[in-house]
């Protein structure tokens, strides 16, 4: 084929993709809740639905009202909520064998949800029909047709999820397509092809989608959709392949929550559609809410954020190697596939023993510090950083400690108190009672000596409480500081020395969060270092005047 003709045909295909309308269908509140460790209350689901609406998701699948009371309560609660951008959908199965759709309790429950859209799933894999449902192949087709046609008379939109479609098509393509035809002839608005077991690969998705589109879509008005699971780590790729072959609806979940290995991740699918494939499925302003939405859902689910998640993760645009940072500073495209701001994320430059001067220069600029204006400061900082990391310190999650390290290199590091000493007691007086922890501390601020003690849930908590108690008299703003997270990691010995521990502390004051680090072969000493950095950072940022120079 001549190159000119190939480019022309490719441009036509790309234009077809750009011009098409893609509907985003979120199933976090139903399929996502089937993930291990994910459980939403009714109020949680209402709040998440509000965020999905603000993001501009076209359809929100709220749950299965026929399966549990919580979803019934959710749909009742949502009657009081006005969605501005999204359509709420209830989810359920086709009717049971031997019962008409109008008499089936689960179908009735779908209607009592009073949603403008309903999604029903049905079997398209002959193996499932015979082994799971234990009905005849013809009866299964009647169940699909009866359910969809009955619901279509009652609600605005009905979507049919063709469960296990790709496995069914590979097993018996004729019967799998007959199941689609039954739903389409009954009036389904969308026929969603499901890779329920998540085992189909992208090239198979493309081939089957193409064959279905050519043999089915041209004879039926229903649009095609895709619902992929991630058991083969191809959920996102399968979804994008399906879109390229004609899928007009993409189903998925925020952060890829879902049963087993999860569902296709909308936080990757949406920017790929808009920024990579040129499909305007969401406004620029809403796309910038993507990272905040992802983090919100993690918080509501009470799960840690996956920092390496593409597009929206904390590490998605993090740069560590000095050569990378040097190039990114000159032009972001050298090591970034999109601008992080497009999805509400930000560029981060990490500091470690791999750092070059470009990393340190970039980080110093983040803090508003001109480190190159002082002779030798950059070299001193680089020397200190590499030496400390060799000892086990790590500043990737402790940027507050690193900012204080910059101040030290500039000879501006000021100490806000001087320690005279502390004692920590951890005492267990009975086998049946928990240990009792107490810390006593003596320190000096501006010539005034403070000696106090406090109890706590463990020695570190007791030391933290005693330190705050001693300092809050002089620095009242420390009352707002809370210890948000505390991590201890045992490190391998360095140059034959005994094992050390690294303590990472995350603190916050209601407005900001910051991380600090300490390293020692004694966990109390390592904790002390991190706690001191945490409180000194707060005082430093508040610009307090009472200081004791180190």
List keywords for this structure.
550 residues; alpha/beta; TIM Barrel; 2 domains; 8-stranded parallel beta barrel; 3-stranded antiparallel beta sheet; 40% helix; disordered C terminus
Overview of this structure, please?
The structure is a single chain. Strands 1-2-3-4-5-6-7-8 form an 8-stranded parallel beta barrel, surrounded by 9 helices. By secondary structure, the chain is an alpha/beta fold. It has 2 domains: 21-282, TIM Barrel (Alpha-Beta Barrel); 414-549, Alpha-isopropylmalate synthase LeuA, regulatory domain (Double Stranded RNA Binding Domain, 2-Layer Sandwich), CATH 3.30.160. The protein contains 19 helices and 18 strands. The model is unreliable at 5-15 and 544-550 (pLDDT under 50).
CATH architecture group name of the largest domain: Alpha-Beta Barrel
Report the sheet with the most strands, covering strand number, pairing sense and barrel closure.
8 strands, parallel, barrel
SSE class: alpha/beta
The average pLDDT value, as a whole number, equals 86
CA radius of gyration is: 29 Å
Number of helices: 19
Oligomer: single chain
Relevant CATH superfamily of the largest domain: Aldolase class I
- Broad CATH class of the largest domain: Alpha Beta
* Coarse shape: elongated
CATH topology of the largest domain: TIM Barrel
Taking pLDDT < 50 over at least 5 consecutive residues as the criterion, the unreliable ranges are 5-15, 544-550
Approximately what portion of the residues adopt beta-strand conformation? 15-25%
Report the end-to-end length measured between terminal Cα atoms: 75 Å
Strand order of the largest sheet: 1-2-3-4-5-6-7-8
SS elements, strand count: 18
Write down the domain tally: 2
Q: Helical content, roughly?
A: 40-55%
